[in-house]
């Protein structure tokens, strides 16, 4: 078998594997309007993707009183679950994951989604059973806290230097840095790649094909 640099590869979900960035931003905006807040800009709604839900909504809607956060979360989930069946994986994700599994990598998801949200997304994408493990923001600490990566590394007894995080936001790359892991950024998700520089990703891939090529050659 080809030698590997990384035993465990953890992927963010939204904006990295799942083409959901624009949809999530629209649902955040709709939820904020539902509770009487000022509509966040597209940039502000996209920036919080990857955080835990309540952390994200609080950041995107600073004018909404804290006592309305539960309703804000309910309205976001209402909008998102109504249209999540319309969202799909980015082209090329399935063969990339299959190739990594064939090389013997352990694959995980580390996401700001809820457990329910991730499980439903995995089922709709027919990826149930593809990943060896996953962590969601309602199970552990949200990004950029490194706890979810620490838990995944502990579960498989893989050290930080053998773990790679792949994500589309500064929250993902900061989490990897906080955990002592290497990272790869992707530019086709929620955050502009110019913001990645100081977080030192090994590479920034501009589409899934480029990401797959890099992982095949360097991971």
Task: Describe this structure in a few short sentences.
By secondary structure, the protein is α/β, with parallel strands linked by helices. It has two domains: 8-20 and 87-218, HAD superfamily/HAD-like (Rossmann fold, 3-Layer(aba) Sandwich), CATH 3.40.50.1000; 21-85, DNA polymerase, domain 1. It is built from nine helices and six strands; from the N terminus they run βαααααβαβαβαββα.
Task: Describe the structure using short key phrases.
219 residues, alpha/beta, Rossmann fold, DNA polymerase, domain 1, 2 domains, 6-stranded parallel sheet, 9 helices, 6 strands
What does this protein structure show overall?
With 219 residues, the protein is α/β, with parallel strands linked by helices. It has two domains: 8-20 and 87-218, 3-Layer(aba) Sandwich (Rossmann fold); 21-85, DNA polymerase, domain 1 (Orthogonal Bundle). Helices cover 43% and strands 12% of the residues. The protein has nine helices and six strands; from the N terminus they run E-H-H-H-H-H-E-H-E-H-E-H-E-E-H. The protein has helices at 21-34, 42-47, 53-60, 69-83, 93-102, 115-124, 147-156, 170-179, 208-218, and strands at 8-11, 106-111, 133-136, 163-167, 182-186, 204-205. Strands 3-2-1-4-5-6 form a six-stranded parallel β-sheet, sandwiched between helices. The two termini are 13 Å apart. 44% of the residues are buried. The mean pLDDT is 91.
């Amino acid at each position: 078998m080809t030698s590997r640099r990384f035993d465990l590869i953890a992927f963010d979900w939204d904006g990295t594997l799942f083409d959901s960035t624009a949809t999530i931003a629209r649902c955040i905006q709709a939820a904020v309007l539902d509770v009487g807040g000022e509509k966040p800009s597209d940039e502000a709604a996209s920036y919080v993707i990857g955080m835990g839900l309540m952390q994200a909504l609080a950041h995107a809607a600073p004018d909404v009183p804290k006592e309305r956060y539960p309703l804000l979360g309910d309205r976001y989930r209402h909008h998102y679950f109504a249209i999540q069946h319309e969202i799909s994986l980015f082209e090329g994700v399935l063969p990339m994951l299959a190739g990594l599994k064939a090389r013997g990598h352990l694959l995980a998801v580390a996401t700001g989604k809820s457990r329910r949200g991730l499980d439903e997304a995995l089922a709709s994408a027919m990826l149930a059973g593809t990943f060896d493990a996953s962590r969601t923001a309602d199970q552990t600490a949200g990004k950029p806290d490194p706890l979810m990566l620490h838990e995944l590394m502990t579960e498989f007894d893989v050290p930080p230097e053998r773990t790679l995080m792949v994500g589309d936001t500064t929250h993902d790359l900061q989490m990897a840095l906080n955990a002592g892991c290497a990272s790869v950024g992707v530019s086709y998700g929620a955050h502009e790649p110019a913001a990645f520089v100081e977080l030192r990703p090994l590479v920034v891939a501009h589409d899934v094909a480029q990401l797959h090529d890099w992982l095949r050659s360097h991971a």
